[in-house]
Amino acid sequence: MASIGQDDPFLEAQADVLSTLNTTRSLYSSYVRIRSLASSASSPELAQARSELEATLQDLSSDLQDLVDSVKAIESDPFRYGVNISEVSRRRKLVEDVDIEVEDMRKELKKVANSQKRDEVHGSTLPPPSAFDPDGPEGDDYEAFEQQRQVEIMHEQDEALDGVFKTVGNLRQQANDMGRELEEQHVMLDEVDNLADRVGGKLQTGIKKVGWVIKKNEDTMSSCCIGVLIFVLILLLVLVIIL
Question: What does the DSSP assignment read for 182-222?
Answer without folding.
Answer: HHHHHHHHHHHHHHHHHHHHHHHHHHHHHHHHHHH--SHHH
